[in-house]
């Protein structure tokens, strides 16, 4: 295949600032030059290329949108474009950066003490430490309020027991942000992974997100100091605010995957000769490209407006739910269509559409399924809660 050509049918570039374009192009070039040569092998072997973490840190994308110390302070749109370009490479790459920034650094930055911030934020930002986020449990996915992981007071500290499932970065992590029930209330804890009683077991056998580390966490009488707890945030407000940060990045990210699939199908159709001419010359092939580009363009514009609202502190969780729901659904449909358009070659891993398709099945599920976001939007529209 030829060099990647990002679709921009409505001149979205013209709506971006020079700095936003520069940030995007820096990450776009890095993904093409450094990540793409590695992802096929990583996906086959089920590994994450951790040797690239220092380079991600050098670009300033690990929590670079947080207003802390000398972090680069990426704007919301620039941050979204970073997620778009990373997931154009692979959902596992974007997931690593998204978890590190939105699910680990963000809660420490927003809810943590000065001591927690000073200990962990610089190390997470420069890539010398990796973090993970423990919310989902084996029996509680869409209903995090039913979690069974518990913390109990023990002298001046706490003792943590329970388990978390489907945890990105778990086996690589130096620190985990863990949500547990303390006296019946959901509280957040900053847990060093070298604490006695903490174990992380990598979850193998995945058909999806193979170039990403996914783990099960177990806490067996893990003793924590009094300084481990987020001192003020209580209830689901804490973890859900983190999920909204992650969902924002996902909405941008999956469109990067869709853009990659569209470009692969477009280039393939121009070079694949059947019945004496390129298959892109046939009406059905062109019609599919038109549908793919139309949905990509609509999502690009929706994401851009969401980003501008976020920069103005006007974005709401239901805005993010609409963008995440729309982008994940259409990105997966585009990946499926692209895989089909490549015919038998579409199942070969030298092409990327099936890899994106498999990844997007997970991304459509995590951080709120399609149906959960439908209910969130339905509640906003009608004022009636249909969750139960």
Can you walk through the features of this model?
It is a single chain. The protein has 388 residues and is of the alpha+beta class. The protein has helices at 18-45, 53-58, 76-89, 91-111, 114-125, 237-271, 283-311, 317-341, 353-363, 370-382; strands at residues 131-134, 150-154, 157-168, 175-182, 185-192, 198-202, 214-224, 273-274, 277-278. It folds into three domains: 12-125, Acyl-CoA dehydrogenase/oxidase, N-terminal domain (Butyryl-Coa Dehydrogenase, subunit A, domain 1, Orthogonal Bundle), CATH 1.10.540.10; 131-228, Butyryl-CoA Dehydrogenase, subunit A, domain 2 (Beta Barrel), CATH 2.40.110.10; 237-382, Butyryl-CoA Dehydrogenase, subunit A, domain 3 (Up-down Bundle), CATH 1.20.140.10. The chain has ten helices and nine strands. The strands form two sheets. Strands 1, 2, 3, 4, 5, 6 and 7 form a seven-stranded mixed sheet that branches. The chain has a two-stranded antiparallel ribbon with strand order 8-9. The chain is globular, with a radius of gyration of 21 Å. The mean pLDDT is 96.
Proportion of helical residues: 40-55%
Examine the secondary-structure arrangement and name the CATH architecture of the largest domain. Answer: Up-down Bundle
CATH third-tier fold name of the largest domain? Butyryl-CoA Dehydrogenase, subunit A, domain 3
- What is the rounded distance between the termini? 49 Å
**How many domain regions?**
3
């Amino acid at each position: 295949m030829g060099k990647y050509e990002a679709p921009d049918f409505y001149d979205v570039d013209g709506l971006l600032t020079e700095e936003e374009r520069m940030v995007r192009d820096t990450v776009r070039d890095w993904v093409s030059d450094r990540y793409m040569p590695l992802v096929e092998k990583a996906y086959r072997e089920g590994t994450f290329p951790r040797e690239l973490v220092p380079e991600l840190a050098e670009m300033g994308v690990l929590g670079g949108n947080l207003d802390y110390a000398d972090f680069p302070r990426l704007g919301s749109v620039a941050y979204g474009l970073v997620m778009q370009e990373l997931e154009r490479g692979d959902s596992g790459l974007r997931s690593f950066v998204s978890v590190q920034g939105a699910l680990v650094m963000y809660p420490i930055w927003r809810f943590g003490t000065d001591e927690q911030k000073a200990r962990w934020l610089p190390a997470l930002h420069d890539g010398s430490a990796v973090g993970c986020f423990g919310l989902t449990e084996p029996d509680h996915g869409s209903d995090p309020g039913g979690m069974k992981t518990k913390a109990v007071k023990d002298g001046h500290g706490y003792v943590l027991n329970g388990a978390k499932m489907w945890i990105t970065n778990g086996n690589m992590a130096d620190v985990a942000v863990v949500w547990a029930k303390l006296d019946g209330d959901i509280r957040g804890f900053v847990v060093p992974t070298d604490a006695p009683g903490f174990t992380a077991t990598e979850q193998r056998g995945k058909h999806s997100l193979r170039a990403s580390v996914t783990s099960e966490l177990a806490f067996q009488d893990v003793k924590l100091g009094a300084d481990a707890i987020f001192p003020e945030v209580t209830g689901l407000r804490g973890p859900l605010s983190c999920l909204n940060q992650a969902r924002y990045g996902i909405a941008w990210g999956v469109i990067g995957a869709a853009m990659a699939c569209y470009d692969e199908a477009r280039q393939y159709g121009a070079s694949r000769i059947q019945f004496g001419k390129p298959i892109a010359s046939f009406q059905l092939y062109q019609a599919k490209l038109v549908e793919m580009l139309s949905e990509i363009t609509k999502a690009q514009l929706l994401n851009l407006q969401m980003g501008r609202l976020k920069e103005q502190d006007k974005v709401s969780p239901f805005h993010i739910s609409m963008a995440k729901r729309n982008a994940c659904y259409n990105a997966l449909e585009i990946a499926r269509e692209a895989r089909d358009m490549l015919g038998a070659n579409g199942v070969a891993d030298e092409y990327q559409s099936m890899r994106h398709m498999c990844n997007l099945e997970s991304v459509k599920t995590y951080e709120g399924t399609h149906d959960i976001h439908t209910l969130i939007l339905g509640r906003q529209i009608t004022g009636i809660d249909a969750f139960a």
